[in-house]
Amino acid sequence: MGEKLKSTVAKVGLPRIIIVAFFISLWFAAAGLGLDLVQLFSDCLKRWGMFGVLVLAMVPAVQCGIGLNFGITMGIVGGLLGGLVVVEFKLSAIPSIVAVSPLLAQWVGILIAIAIGIVLATGIGWLYGLLLNRVKGSEMTVTTYVGFSIIAFMNIMWTVLPFKSGVLIYPNAGEGLRNTISLADDYSGVVSNTLAIHPEGSSLNIPTGLILFVLFVCLLVWLFMRSKTGIAMSAAGANPQFAKASGINVNKMRLIGTTLSTVLAAVGILLYAQGFGFIQLYNGPMMMGFNCVAAVLIGGATPKRARISHVLVGTFLFQGLLVIALPVANQIIPEGNLSEVMRMIIANGIILYALVQNKGGDSRD
Amino acid sequence: MTKKKTIGEWLFENKVMLIFAFLSIGGTMASGQSVAFVVNELMTRIARNAFTILSLLIPVLAGMGLNFGIVIGAIATQIALFLTTHWRIAGITGILATAALATPLAVFFGFLVGKLFNKMKGNEMIGGLVLGYFADGLYQLLFLFIFGGVIAINDPKLMIATGIGVKNTIDLTETTKYALDTVPLLSVIEIAFYVVIAATILSALFKLAQKQTVDWKRTGGILIGAVVVYALTFIPAVERFLAQDRMLLLNAVEIACAATVLWQLWKIVYAKSIRKQAGFDVKRPLVYIALAVLVYASTYLQAVYDVLVYTRLPMTTYLCILALCCMNSALLKTRLGQNMRAVGQSRAVANAAGINVDRTRIIAMIFSTVLASWGQLIYLQNIGTFSTYGAHTQVGQYAIASLLVGGASVQKATNKQAILGVILFHTLFIVAPLAGKELLGNAMIGEYFRVFVSFGVIALALAMHAWKKVAKPALASGEKDAKKA
Hints:
Chain A is an all-alpha fold. Chain A has helices at 2-12, 14-32, 37-56, 58-64, 73-88, 95-100, 102-134, 139-160, 190-193, 208-226, 228-238, 240-245, 250-276, 288-298, 308-332, 338-357, and strands at residues 180-182, 278-280.
């Protein structure tokens, strides 16, 4: 019995068990403190949907062999640009479509944003993939710093890009784009509010549209992974030599995986922005990569293997933990941001754990 | 060494450094600031940052790459400094007390980091980066909730009004600000004199007690040398000079020139008449002497002179930096240093040669963490206010970027590269916002540019390193992968 328990613990990983136990005990604590559990659950679902596609971006990256993609910020900036263009030209409020239905107009807006994001991210992701094919074995270190660099580079760009809309730029002839841009007049909450279940008098609020959208993207990725290319890609990631011997172009597969990951990140950040109601520029998305990596790892992924189920479970656990920790922590210690501190410790702790487990993975002497 | 490099090769190898030199000079011109201002700022920044950058060299030697984990050394110092500030220990006593408290902490942390890095060989850099964030989380937990929340600290000056959590900034003006910078060289020499005398006599007595032979000539030499140096400080002119805590940059340049000339002359004499080396190349030392003379001559130019008399250096701080440079090169001559180098070149070979690889790596990390903690102490006492939740976060990134700018790589880094790097990187840091304002009418662009540069240079260096690694042993590692699977 003891042996069996040990092997189960080793298989699941002690940190994951601690996190799940913590998650469950937080629910009990919240119930004990008399917090509105239904509302907390609604928030969990909302955050789960907001982060779902961003975390999903890890799957093709890990499967194609580049490992945990800390550099999803590459795709994020593409998505942000798409989102900004739509706000600039008021594409989410085209009069002729608004006349039919305002919600439809918003949908058109976010779909245009996603389309622009996908086009940009495809280009960026392709170049990024070319780089990563030349740094095999050190992808994680390189992706992290390339990801940071693009954020720093875009900081300059956000200051100089010729956007004109008053919503976007600082007022009073200030320089450049605002730090946080409200989407209230554009496509804020468009996906989340579609088909939302929100009974009168109850704090329950299920963002059905968002959940369906995330599941739909997951389905697309799942189908892709089952396709001939997807299987070849997984093979290239799992065993490059064998894949090469079977006639698979490993570099091309890595390129496809990296591009797909980058594109998903672009879509993901737009879903995040519409759920949040704001676009965050400058250093806002800096640590997004770390959060997404942590989420997929909590779900059970390793730097060598990630499945869609890992994404769904991990995002729910990680984001749920943060959602529920905030009010609970505030009840216990009103000052300070205990939830943020906890996020840092959990996210980085699980990444460290994964790196230790991964020993020998890419430690080439 | 034997093969002469063509100019093209040299340019390619030093491209990062050259680009930075170009940016620094261009930025200085564009910023519209006087050279004196930039040099003055730069000297302050070198005093602040050089020590931390030099603490990165040992892990590079041991093959552990750029140590992003030095953040943890900084954290050790900040915990210690918080406590000594809370106890109101002021002046140089405060500095020493902080160091005494931070060092064991840093040794302990360094040991843990080394243990962890041994479990993720080959991933030390990303591991160190993540570890830095992780440690930052724990640090915030300590400072925001445990201080005051669990450990009662009654100190309205340091704690926020509710008593739980430490304030955002801690003012060191009344305690340790400039405490190290203002120590006159005279005191340092005095203390060093007593320490040397005591150590020499004790070592001789110890050897006598152990019935080992004592090298009386050497012992006597050291004693006489120490007495002579100490006696020199009683000459009024020398005493007056040393009693100041700041030295004119002009004097520093003069001393450096004189020291270079003497040192190179000694090298020639040593090689020619004492060792009688046949193949000794006299050209190199002669070039150095000529350079020193040239630099000295240039101080007579009015423009250069004006810059040099404008800037004053904190002598003791620079002495610490110099001592660390010497220690880094002296380490290479010890057995430990050679072991580290062997481990750095190939763990498998080092292991076969009987070196305890894991232990050597842990020692390297302890060294680096302790040195980084001292570096942070130097930094904080010079800044004078200590941003509780921000002072440590950028330590690793800026130090590593500086080192890389100086031409270092993931595998090789020297004192020279560190010093050159800190000069170039911090020049850019000083002038970038000013240049941005002058050229584009927006200081923020310059600000963002310098951050971009610091990330970009690290990304570039890491990518170049990985690229080289893939290009060379692609076949060998490929085979290993196949076996593993």
